[in-house]
Specification:
Its EC number is 1.5.1.2. GO terms for molecular function: pyrroline-5-carboxylate reductase activity. Pathway: Amino-acid biosynthesis; L-proline biosynthesis; L-proline from L-glutamate 5-semialdehyde: step 1/1. This protein is α/β, with parallel strands linked by helices and about 290 residues long. Helices cover about 50% and strands about 15% of the residues. The protein has 14 helices and 8 strands. It has an 8-stranded mixed β-sheet, with helices on both faces. β5, α7 and β6 form a beta-alpha-beta unit. α9 crosses α14. The relative contact order is 0.10.
Length: about 290
Amino acid sequence: MTYTLAILGCGVMGQALLSAIYNAPKAADETAAAFYPSKIITCNHDEPSAHQVTDLVETFDESPNGIKVESTYGHNVSAVEEASVVLLGTKPFLAEEVLNGVKSVIGGKLLISLAAGWTIDQLSQYTSTVCRVMTNTPAKYGYGCAVVSYSADVSKEQKPLVNELISQVGKYVELPEKNMDAATALVGSGPAFVLLMLESLMESGLKLGIPLQESKECAMKVLEGTVKMVEKSGAHPSVLKHQVCTPGGTTIAGLCVMEEKGVKSGIINGVEEAARVASQLGQKKK
């Protein structure tokens, strides 16, 4: 089985998914191969945007699964008509205009939406088979996380296809839609919060006399190594944190100051605020 995938809005996240799907390792068997499109049509609003996609694809080698890419602009309707699966990659405020523009031809298609705040009920006004996805920018490098929710009409045959495609960006997690605003904050906004921590560690080293480049490298390795330690050990972060602390030592002294300054509560409150904003993004779209 072969099919066409249309990407409506191939910007940062659309290109991340395009890159991951196009460059996915060759499918192990015919069943897995059927999950990959033979053709991807990217749809943007103007010629420069379309050229960005063309330039990106030209940096790739041949797709291991034989996928061809056609970069277009101003041809949303014809692209959706040809496609069996449609990926909505627009910004949330543009989603209504884009979806209304293809409303006459999108019915019956499987819609995979990356538009934050747009609920399954809202998306189901256009087609009944809806997959809502929240991923993040590390997806561009294959180290992302994607939280996925499905409408009731998505079949058991369609879910493995979505799983195969979306898993190419990194970790695939299926959750009920009620968790999607929280996932938008934790997963979608999370990289920016982690980068703030990375920047803070880097600049602390700089303040204490470590050159910028070396401070950056040390801070990155501290984050990378700590994540691997949690992953490999399976231990709770608090257990590992206290293993670093010695009585009257440097680590507990630094932690006490951070707690006094509200670092932990600040992060939690920041994620909560991001989730609150996420819950409002689609409210005007009834």
